[in-house]
Amino acid sequence: MSKPAYKRVLLKLSGEALMGDDAYGINRATIERMVADIAEVAKSGVELAVVIGGGNIFRGVAPGAQGMDRATADYMGMLATVMNALALADAMRHVGIVARVMSAIGIEQVVEPYVRPKALQYLEEGKVVIFAAGTGNPFFTTDTAAALRGSEIGAEIVLKATKVDGVYTADPKKDPSATRYESINFDEAIAKHLQVMDATAFALCRDQKLPIKVFSIVKPGALMRVVMGEDEGTLVHV
Ligand SMILES: Nc1ncnc2c1ncn2[C@@H]1O[C@H](COP(=O)(O)OP(=O)(O)OP(=O)(O)O)[C@@H](O)[C@H]1O
Ligand SMILES: O=c1ccn([C@@H]2O[C@H](COP(=O)(O)O)[C@@H](O)[C@H]2O)c(=O)[nH]1
């Protein structure tokens, strides 16, 4: 059997993808299917860290946050990612994956704080590390947290698992004529304002020479194909 293409990866899971076909929250069947995909990767020996989004529960720039102080709304968004992280870790436990949640915001009765050497130790031990609460700072996103933590842990690639199967010339949900890139460089993605990820995340990955693979978490087997280095999704590169 062929070997995985990477030793250590940072997987960014869209919070919105956790909703499945529901209007908000966590869809049980969806999270179980995602975790089954993750289990396959973990069993292949790849060291796996995960950053989970919060869009299925709360987004600081959402209509529900209108009129709120932006930083307060963003802290609510970060706390939403902690809920998703706990749900993800619990679903992993059910299938025998040992996971540790580490939060960028201090809530030690609930989850342990993010401490970089400890995260590295867990990865070396073969545990899955789930980074919760984004960067711990308002005015950022979990995509930027993925770029940041991916850089800190020396991941070889950020795998952005989302609801679309790659980076398109425009948002494919709004423009059906949009076409998918097989690969694109960071400067072009930033210059064209391609909003599949925010510019801060693209810029950090570019500066750290950390490639990103954007692919669909909804497509069966796509995560494993990405990890095996097969043709899937869009590669964003330097
Ligand atoms: N050029 C583009 N190519 C692909 N997708 C795009 C593009 N522009 C906008 N999008 C949209 O970006 C979305 C991907 O963002 P996604 O919701 O996964 O990230 P997120 O905001 O980090 O998620 P969450 O907050 O739920 O964790 C896609 O669902 C797609 O509709
Ligand atoms: O570093 C961060 C990460 C996230 N937030 C807030 O949380 C929500 C949810 O994150 P998504 O990346 O949109 O899934 C985000 O909209 C922000 O409000 C943050 O402030 N800082």
From TrEMBL:
**So where does ATP get bound?**
K12, L13, S14, G15, G55, R59, T162, Y168, D171
Question: Any idea which GO molecular function terms this record carries?
Answer: ATP binding; UMP kinase activity
The EC number on file is 2.7.4.22
Keywords, sorted A to Z = ATP-binding, Cytoplasm, Kinase, Nucleotide-binding, Pyrimidine biosynthesis, Transferase
A GO biological process this protein is involved in? UDP biosynthetic process
InterPro entries assigned to the protein according to its UniProt record, in alphabetical order:
AceGlu_kinase-like_sf, Asp/Glu/Uridylate_kinase, Uridylate_kinase, Uridylate_kinase_bac
Q: Cross-referenced Pfam families, in alphabetical order?
A: AA_kinase
* Protein's pathway: Pyrimidine metabolism; CTP biosynthesis via de novo pathway; UDP from UMP (UMPK route): step 1/1
Aspartate/glutamate/uridylate kinase domain sequence ranges: 7-216
Main enzyme class: transferase
Mention any one GO cellular component term assigned to this protein in its UniProt record: cytosol
Q: According to its UniProt record, where is this protein located?
A: Cytoplasm
Its catalytic activity? Answer: UMP + ATP = UDP + ADP
What is the similarity comment for this entry? Answer: Belongs to the UMP kinase family.
What does the UniProt function comment say about this protein? Catalyzes the reversible phosphorylation of UMP to UDP.
The name this protein goes by in its record? Uridylate kinase
Provide the gene name from the record.
Answer: pyrH
